[in-house]
Amino acid sequence: MRKIIVNGEEKAVEAATLDALLGLLDYEGSWIATAVNGEIVRRPDRDACALADGDRVEILSPMQGG
After folding, report:
1. DSSP secondary structure string for all residues of the chain
2. Using one digit for the tens of pLDDT, what is the confidence trace for 33-49?
3. What's the whole-model pTM score?
4. CATH second-level architecture of 2-60?
C-alpha cells in the first residue's frame, strides 16, 4: 500500500503507477489532466509514472453546468 494525497485527500492505494491509480479511482477518458508533485503528467506518460509514499496527485476533469 502507498499513502498518497489525491486532490488534497489522503488515500492508501495499491496502485503502482498513475495510470493504475486512475483506473482504480474510475477516471477514464482523454479529457482529464493529471499532475504528480506539481509536475504535469501527459497521458502517454501515465503508465510509466511510478507512485511513491507521500506523492501529491492532482486529477482535473471538466464539470458540466454553469
Report:
1. -EEEEETTEEEEE---BHHHHHHHTT--STT-EEEETTEEE-GGGGGG-B--TT-EEEEE------
2. 999 999 999 999 999 99
3. 0.89
4. Roll (3.10)
